[in-house]
Design a protein that fits this description.
The chain is α/β, with parallel strands linked by helices and about 375 residues long. Helix content is about 45%, strand content about 20%. It contains 14 helices and 13 strands. The chain is globular, with a radius of gyration of 23 Å.
Length: about 375
């Protein structure tokens, strides 16, 4: 998006400034006709007051910027007023944004990999690539801290391209060493902004070619909200991605508003059952019917299912009996660095030896947590 600044030198009160912000938001809520279509525009407004003239130009803009990002975090299409309490948190966030820019340039980022198991054979058949930030002061930071900052700063596009390229590079290494089967798949998350703003087709095609990885070995994970995005349907991006030979997975399926009609319209390949439905699945609960419905939906559209966040054998057993094809979670392994993952799939890991899974579920790996995908 674009950013604009409005100076109100004659405003005498906060109420007066807020009234201006309300008028701006109201005017932008009116759909705009563009090329025979109606386009809806939203805005997030940050208000910084300077009644005593204590702030200079740069400080005033910085304060407004902090308030604007707070408005974005709280739902967009709204305004927030800068307060002194926001200043300390804002400084920290600005420092983190600057550090993230350096991190991409100075190779402070790395990928961890979480195994995906074939339920029928109980073997590792793929992995999800998850970015980590080796922050020089804060230690290892996961996507929860990293991705929102990248979205705010616009760094999500170079970050997303780096994640894709490094995941394929690592897969090429494992394939070259004979550690994985020819059909071993890597799953990479793709953000909404990547889908809308980047030349994603070219980025994916170039990365596959650069690392000599077959397209059939790559799965791109999108959020369920994208299935109801009218722009995505108009530009045919999912169809064009699938025409490259890659698979499309819908992450956290069941938490949004999509249904059978959207799945049929976009022809996705994988539905990932959200961990919120898996948690407690070993006990009688309404989530059982939700999971059963998701698996049935997948079958009806020719897709397969991956259950996320599995933390105990009982959950695995229920999912297996329901016909879920693939499984992922801390019960098998947390996300781990490439060297540990290589040891795991080679059958030499102390935490999980997939090659020895004759009776694989007597003891789960330690360190289970609800944050399996982070």
């Amino acid at each position: 998006g674009d950013e604009f600044a409005i100076l109100l030198p004659s405003a005498v009160s906060e109420t007066e400034v807020i009234a201006v912000a309300d008028r701006i938001l109201d005017s932008l809520r009116v759909p705009l006709p563009v090329a025979d279509r109606l386009i809806e525009v939203t805005a997030s407004i940050g208000i910084a007051l300077n009644p005593d003239g204590q702030y200079g130009r740069d400080e005033l803009l910085r304060n407004a910027d902090m308030a604007m990002y707070l408005a974005k975090e709280r739902g967009k299409g709204r305004y927030e007023v800068f307060t002194v309490g926001l200043e300390a948190a804002g400084f920290e966030r600005l420092e983190m944004k600057a550090a993230l820019r350096r991190a991409i340039d100075e190779e402070e980022l790395m990928l961890y990999f979480q195994p995906i198991l074939d339920v029928s054979t109980r073997t590792v058949c793929g992995a999800e690539a998850l970015v980590r930030w080796r922050h020089p002061e804060r230690g290892i930071l996961g996507p929860g801290a990293l991705v929102p900052l990248a979205e705010e700063t616009g760094l999500i596009l170079p970050l997303g391209a780096w994640v894709l390229g490094d995941a394929l590079r690592q897969l090429a290494v494992w394939r070259g060493r004979g550690l994985v089967e020819e059909n071993f798949r890597i799953s990479v998350n793709v953000s909404v902004r990547q889908m809308r703003e980047s030349d994603l087709i070219a980025v994916v095609a170039d990365s596959l070619e650069a690392h000599a990885v077959p397209p059939s070995c790559l799965t791109l994970e999108i959020t369920e909200s994208l299935l109801v995005d009218s722009e995505l349907e108009r530009n045919g991006l999912l169809e064009r991605l699938r025409s490259l030979g890659v698979s499309i997975a819908v992450d956290d399926f069941g938490t949004g508003y999509s249904g059978l009609n959207y799945l049929q319209r976009f022809a996705v390949d994988v539905l990932k059952i959200d961990r919120s439905f898996v948690d407690g699945l070993e006990l009688p609960s309404a989530d059982l019917s939700v999971v059963r419905t998701v698996i049935d939906l997948a079958r009806r559209v020719g897709a397969v299912t991956v259950a996320e966040g599995i933390e105990c054998y009982e959950q695995f057993e229920v999912l297996r009996d329901l016909g879920c094809e693939f499984a992922q979670g801390f019960y098998f392994s947390k996300p781990i660095p490439p060297a540990e993952f290589a040891a795991l799939i080679a059958g030499s890991s102390g935490d999980l030896s997939v090659a020895e899974m004759e009776d694989p579920f007597e003891q789960a790996p330690t360190g289970t947590s609800a944050g399996a995908g982070i």
